[in-house]
Write a structure and sequence with these properties.
Length: 344
């Protein structure tokens, strides 16, 4: 089968021929119907050789949708032919966090060498992908896999972040979304569907600001040094009650802190390497600063149900598998709108 692989640190990914895997006991083989492409892979592929944590070559792609092709022994929850998406942040399945469905915060994944598909285990940018356990599969019925697959990360990550901030997002409150790309453009829609807050979207690209307005942002503004003042003007001087930074660069985390109100939350979701000093006087009183990673299993099920109600429409660009390497190039150059999805 064809697979988009990162082969050597520092080199662009390539499309290779690799064997189709066979499901062992408890495992499920999916014929990939759609695989979303995330900016995190660009960060992963920028890591130096001496700090690179995964075995190479690595088949990329951690947003997966597919049809069950074959099942291993002791698999009974899914049947051949069923259309599913994959919960990506695999954990041990048994620790306290995993028992709550929060495998993204598994206490033992590192110790046991458990990795998500595309981030250590072979990923979904291929014709077939092997899933370690049936519990990672969420049936999607007749939902379009191409428009649904980004929900497994570009949707689930903001959904988890927004749920944690929901107590701050009462009607009349203001939420700021920094970076209206794959994750951010779903975040804007989720904020509209899940809260009564006014949504202010910030980006450096005109097209992203246009997209933000189309999908329901109340305000779409340039992300620059004037932005915190603009957010204060829109909120009678108070600032935003929740800020979600889907870039995470030094400039944007500082913007986030400056735009935040007292008793608010700042969530740094983007892995752009920025950091905020937290201490008395360094952030507004009562403000929680946090980073979150992906989301929980039950949250993905909730989000798929929300999508079935029509609450989120993911803006997708479709590509073939041979275009996988080109998608990463376009992403680095900021030439993707919404989410790029590879359809093998
Ligand atoms: P993307 O490339 O689709 O979108 C990034 C957006 O940010 C683009 O619209 C771009 O124009 C905008 N942007 C760039 N610089 C900006 C600035 N200074 N101010 C405002 N906007 C700016 O990326 P994505 O796939 O949506 O990922 C977003 C970030 O989230 C990445 O850093 C990614 O690695 C990270 N991520 C984190 C998690 C997690 O679990 N924490 C999960 C997935 C992705
Ligand atoms: Zn991702
Ligand atoms: Zn666990």
């Amino acid at each position: 089968m064809r697979a988009v692989q990162y082969v050597q640190v520092g080199q662009a990914p390539v499309v290779n021929d690799v064997p189709v895997p066979e499901p062992g006991p408890g495992q499920v083989l999916l014929k990939v119907t759609a695989a979303g492409v995330c900016h995190s892979d660009v960060a992963v592929m920028s890591w130096p050789a001496d700090a690179f944590p995964f075995r190479l070559p690595l088949t990329l792609g951690h947003e997966a949708a597919g049809v069950v092709e074959a099942v291993g022994e002791n698999v009974s929850a899914v049947a051949v032919g069923e259309s599913v998406v994959v919960y990506g942040p695999w954990g041990c399945g048994a620790c306290r966090e995993c028992s709550r469905g929060m495998e993204n915060y598994c206490a033992r994944a590192e110790e046991l060498g458990i990795h998500p598909p595309g981030l250590g285990a072979p990923g979904a940018l291929a014709e077939y992908v092997l899933i370690d356990d049936q519990r990672h599969l969420v049936p999607i019925g007749d939902l379009d896999p191409v428009r649904t697959v980004p929900l497994t990360d570009a949707g689930l990550t903001p959904y988890h972040a927004i749920k944690r901030a929901q107590h701050n997002l009462y009607p009349g409150a203001t939420a700021v979304v920094i970076g209206v790309g794959g994750l951010g453009h779903v975040a804007v829609q989720l904020l509209r569907a899940m809260t009564g807050a006014t949504v202010v979207a910030l980006d450096v690209r005109e097209e992203s600001l246009k997209l933000a307005e189309q999908i329901g942002a109340h305000h779409a503004l340039r992300s620059d040094t004037q932005a915190p003042g603009a957010v204060r003007d829109l909120t009678g001087g108070a600032g935003a009650n929740a800020v979600f930074d889907f870039v995470g660069a030094q400039a944007t985390v500082e913007l986030a802190a400056k735009a935040a109100a007292k008793d608010s939350s700042v969530n740094i979701v983007g892995i752009g390497g920025g950091a905020l000093p937290v201490g008395f006087g360094a952030v507004p009183y009562g403000t929680a600063v946090e980073t979150t990673y992906w989301g929980g299993r039950s949250e993905l099920i909730e989000l798929i149900d929300l999508a079935r109600q029509g609450a989120v429409g993911v803006h997708v660009e479709r590509y073939g598998i041979e275009q996988g390497p080109e998608v990463y190039e376009r992403m680095e150059e900021g030439r993707i709108q919404g989410r790029a999805v590879v359809v093998p």
